[in-house]
Design a protein that fits this description.
The chain is of the alpha+beta class and 344 residues long. The protein folds into two domains: 7-99, STAS domain (Transcription Regulator spoIIAA, 2-Layer Sandwich), CATH 3.30.750.24; 116-340, Lipoprotein localisation LolA/LolB/LppX (outer membrane lipoprotein receptor (LolB), chain A, Clam), CATH 2.50.20.10. Helix content is 24%, strand content 38%. The chain has seven helices and 14 strands. The protein has helices spanning 23-40, 58-72, 85-94, 96-99, 122-142, 157-165, 233-236, and strands at residues 7-11, 14-19, 46-51, 77-82, 173-184, 191-201, 205-210, 237-247, 250-259, 265-273, 278-286, 291-301, 304-316, 319-332. Strands 7-6-5-14-13-12-11-10-9-8 form a ten-stranded antiparallel beta sheet. A four-stranded mixed beta sheet has the order 1-2-3-4. Helix 1 runs parallel beside helix 2 (58-72). The radius of gyration is 22 Å and the shape is globular.
């Protein structure tokens, strides 16, 4: 089937692109359409992609995700629709039907400059969003269930981290829905709700795709590309065992981590449950005196201990906020195409 590469019409500022099943040409058409829309509408561009063929191939899926990221940097969006029921089913199965969905209409207006007069600077608001997003990304990635260790609890940092890294070998993949509420408890009292899909594939493929990202949070999703994992901790931190600390009725091992190359953070505190080798809490202590803390809880899904919820408190200069995330609609050990992961 021939791919239709022309952007065919404008509907309420939304450009439409119709695609067939020629994968290579479709990839070029998607990239070209996204670039053209950005040139013509640099703020909040909209692109509708209609799949006319029976399949949603891996190359096309990867091209759509890459284009979505580029448009979202300026508050834009991509809507994907499928004319064939088989392609529509592929969108639903992958969870991308909600990621690539937006009612047709005028783009969300940018806040007037006067709206933020006398409020914390835009950089402070972005700092708040960046910190919150990064924390949730850390904990989503670390929430992949760890295997239960045999024998006594580890008594040195390397052994503890090895247990945390030693993920459950029966978990090959999962996908789930994530819902995050972020509320500033200081001026300017921002309150944002984000919905998205998360994907994991062993050994270390991880992706978060939000259904919608507000214009003032452009670049939000890219924060998920720069999150370390426990396997790298010993190279990046000097780690010591502080002792134990009570956490919700049981005793956790408390680790103190100091960056080998000094950054903004004075030290991090990590609470590890020695019964399950799960990370219950992390605290980030900044040189400025600010503190960000997050806790998490788990649920059992098909015999796996999966993330259920997270709570964060942010108290840094100029910004105070709380955040709550919930996770559900899990599908474990299902086929997830590598194209979902954008090679970050």
């Amino acid at each position: 089937m021939q791919v239709l590469t022309r952007m065919t019409r404008m509907v309420n500022r939304m450009t439409e692109l119709r695609l067939g099943t020629d994968d290579e040409e479709a990839r070029r058409a998607i990239a070209g359409a996204a670039a053209a829309v950005l040139r013509r509408t640099p703020v909040a561009p909209r692109l509708r992609v209609v799949l006319t063929g029976p399949t949603l191939s891996a190359p096309v899926m990867a091209a759509l995700i890459a284009a979505l990221r580029s448009l979202r940097e300026t508050g834009g969006a991509i809507v994907v629709e499928a004319e064939d029921e088989r392609a529509k089913a592929a969108l639903v199965t992958s969870g991308l039907d909600r990621v690539f969905a937006l009612p047709i209409g005028e783009p969300e207006p940018e806040p007037d400059r006067e709206t933020f007069a006398g409020q914390p600077s835009r950089s402070h608001v972005k700092s708040f969003l960046r910190s919150t997003a990064a924390l949730f990304a850390v904990f989503i990635a670390l929430a992949i269930p760890a295997a239960r260790a045999q024998g006594p609890a580890a008594n040195d940092p390397a052994a503890i981290i090895a247990h945390v890294v030693d993920r459950n070998p029966d978990l090959g993949t999962y996908q789930s829905r994530v819902h995050i509420d972020v509320k500033m408890t200081s001026f300017p009292w921002l309150h944002e709700h984000l919905d998205g899909s998360t994907y994991f594939k062993r050994p270390n493929n991880f992706e978060v795709a939000f259904d919608r990202v507000p214009g003032y949070a452009k670049g939000f999703e890219k924060l998920y590309t720069d999150i370390g994992d426990p396997a790298t901790w010993e190279k990046r931190f000097v780690i010591t065992i502080v002792g134990t600390r009570p956490f919700e009725g049981h005793q956790d091992i408390e680790l103190r981590m100091v960056q080998r190359v000094r950054g903004m953070i004075d030290h991090e505190t990590v609470l590890v449950d020695p019964a399950a080798w799960a990370i219950d809490e992390m605290e980030y202590h900044y040189y400025t005196g600010g503190v960000i803390a997050m806790t998490q809880h788990f649920q059992t899904i098909e015999g796996h201990s999966m993330l259920a919820s997270q709570d964060a408190s942010i108290d840094i200069p100029h910004v105070r906020a709380v955040a709550h995330g919930t996770y559900g609609e899990y599908r474990v050990n299902v086929a997830i195409d590598d194209a979902v992961f954008t090679g970050k």
